[in-house]
Write a structure and sequence with these properties.
With 418 residues, this protein is α/β, with parallel strands linked by helices. Helix content is 30%, strand content 27%.
Length: 418
C-alpha cells in the first residue's frame, strides 16, 4: 500500500496551478446521460473521476479521456442503455448516486446501489428519494439497491428540501430536466459546483432560473446535440494549498482560480493574519507570522465549507490562543483529530466543537488517513512539523487531489510517494 513521506520545515516557494473541480465534474458527468455528445475540459485526473467514467461506460456511454489535455469526450446515442449502477462501481464514491436522476429522467427507470465514499457521516440518500418521489417516481430499496421507476415519465412539481443537500439538489435538478412542466425546488444548495451543473444544462438547452435558494427547472424534451463545457476550478484544492502556503510558505503564487467563489474563506484567513494579495486569476501568499485565533462554524455555501475544516484546523494549531471550529454538516468529521494529536496538536472535542490551543510545535509521526480531507490535513501538518511524517492509506488522497506531491515538490517541499 502506498504512503507519503514528508520532511517538514521546508519553506514553500513557487507557483501552483489549481485543477478543475472534482465536485463539479462528477454531477456534470452524470448529466451527460441526458446528452448526445459532450466535450468537457479542465477535468481533474483523479480516482473519483475515473470511477464515474467506468460507471458511465457500464451504463453504455462511449467515453474517451485525453489525460494530457484534461479533456473527456462523451457520446450517448444509445436509447437502450443499462440502467443499473452496480455496487462494485458505487461503493467507493458517493457521487455514483447522481446517475439516479438522469436515468429516471431519460429512461424512466434505474437501479442504483446505495452509495459509499468517505466514512465521515451517514449522509443518507433520503433527501434524494424525497425529491424523486415528489416528481412521481415509484421507489423501493431492496438488497442494498435503490430501485426506481416512472413508466409515464416524471412530472414537474414543487419540492422543498427539509435540509440543504448538495447531492440531493443536483439529483433533483437532473431528474427535473426532462420532467413534464415546471419543477420548483426550494431550500436548495447553491454551491458553485451546483451552479456549474446548471450552466452545463443551460448549454444543453435547458431553461433553469435561480433566485436565492430557489431553483426553477422547466422540463425540456429536446436537447442540443453537441456541446462543450469547461469545468470550474476546484475551490477546495485551492483552499488546501492556500492554507499550506500560509503555514510554511515563503512566497507562493496560486493560479487558475476565481476568488469570487472564495470570499468567506479569504476573509477568515486574513482575520487570522495571513498575508494574501489578490489579482484577477491568481493569488500570492507571503510568509505569514503571528497568526491569531479565530472561531468558525461550517455551513452550506456561502458559509465556510466542511471540506476545508480539517485543513483549517492544522492552521489553527499554529495560531496564538484557543481557536474553535463547530462542525455542523457531518457528524464524524473530526477523525483526523487523534492523528493530529499524535503529532503534538493540543485539541479537545466537546460535542460538535473542536477547541484548538496554539501555537503548538508539531513533530513528525506515522499517521493514518481516514478520509479524503482528513488525509490532506495530515500532509499539511507534516509540512510544518519537525522531522519526518509518514501518511498511510493515501488512496483517499488520490480520490480528490491531482498530482499533490508534484505540486508541492514544485514549491520546494520534500515529499515522496513510496
Amino acid at each position: 500500500m502506498q504512503k507519503l513521506i514528508i520532511k517538514g520545515k521546508k519553506h514553500l516557494l513557487g507557483s501552483i496551478s489549481i485543477s478543475g473541480s472534482k465536485n463539479a465534474t462528477l454531477p456534470i458527468l452524470a448529466a451527460s446521460i441526458l446528452a448526445n455528445k459532450v466535450k468537457l475540459s479542465n477535468i481533474p485526473i483523479v480516482k473519483d473521476i475515473s470511477t464515474m467514467v467506468e460507471l458511465l461506460r457500464y451504463i453504455g456511454l462511449k467515453i474517451k479521456i485525453i489525460n494530457k489535455h484534461k479533456k473527456i469526450l462523451i457520446e450517448n446515442k444509445n436509447e437502450k442503455v443499462n440502467t443499473l449502477a452496480p455496487y462494485k462501481l458505487v461503493k467507493t464514491m458517493r457521487a455514483g448516486v447522481l446517475v439516479l436522476g438522469p436515468l429516471l429522467s431519460r429512461y424512466q427507470k434505474a437501479k442504483v446501489s446505495l452509495p459509499g465514499g468517505c466514512a465521515i457521516g451517514t449522509r443518507p440518500v433520503n433527501l434524494h428519494l424525497h425529491a424523486l418521489k415528489k416528481l412521481g417516481a415509484k421507489i423501493k430499496i431492496k438488497d442494498g439497491y435503490i430501485i426506481a421507476e416512472a413508466k409515464k415519465g416524471l412530472l414537474g412539481t414543487k419540492i422543498r428540501f427539509p435540509s440543504i443537500s448538495v447531492g440531493a439538489t443536483e439529483n433533483a435538478i437532473l431528474a427535473a430536466y426532462k420532467a413534464k412542466g415546471k419543477t420548483e425546488l426550494s431550500n436548495c444548495a447553491i454551491e458553485p459546483e451546483v451552479l456549474d451543473l446548471i450552466t452545463f444544462l443551460k448549454k444543453l438547452g435547458g431553461k433553469i432560473k435561480i433566485s436565492g435558494r430557489k431553483i426553477i427547472v422547466y422540463g425540456k424534451t429536446s436537447i442540443k446535440k453537441n456541446i462543450a463545457h469547461k469545468v470550474i476550478f476546484d475551490r477546495i484544492e485551492f483552499g488546501t494549498y492556500l492554507i499550506a502556503a500560509i503555514l510554511i510558505g515563503k512566497k507562493v503564487s496560486i493560479n487558475n482560480i476565481n476568488t469570487k467563489y472564495f470570499k468567506q474563506e479569504i476573509s477568515i484567513l486574513k482575520k487570522m493574519g495571513a498575508k494574501i494579495f489578490i489579482s484577477k486569476k491568481s493569488i500570492i501568499i507571503s510568509k505569514s507570522k503571528n497568526l491569531k485565533k479565530i472561531s468558525v462554524s461550517t455551513k452550506p455555501y456561502p458559509g465556510f465549507p466542511t471540506d476545508l475544516q480539517a485543513q483549517l484546523m492544522v492552521l489553527m494549531t499554529q495560531a496564538k490562543g484557543t481557536s474553535k471550529i463547530k462542525e455542523n454538516i457531518f457528524e464524524n468529521r473530526f477523525m483526523h483529530v487523534p492523528e493530529l494529536k499524535r503529532m503534538g496538536a493540543n485539541i479537545e472535542i466537546k460535542n460538535k466543537t473542536a477547541l484548538i490551543k496554539g501555537p503548538t510545535k508539531l513533530t513528525g509521526a506515522e499517521v493514518m488517513a481516514t478520509d479524503l480531507r482528513a488525509s490532506v490535513s495530515l500532509v499539511l501538518a507534516g509540512l510544518v512539523a519537525d522531522n519526518r511524517t509518514i501518511v498511510n492509506r493515501i488512496y483517499h488522497l488520490d480520490r480528490g487531489y491531482e498530482s499533490l506531491e508534484y505540486k508541492l515538490k514544485n514549491c520546494m517541499a520534500k515529499v515522496k510517494r513510496v
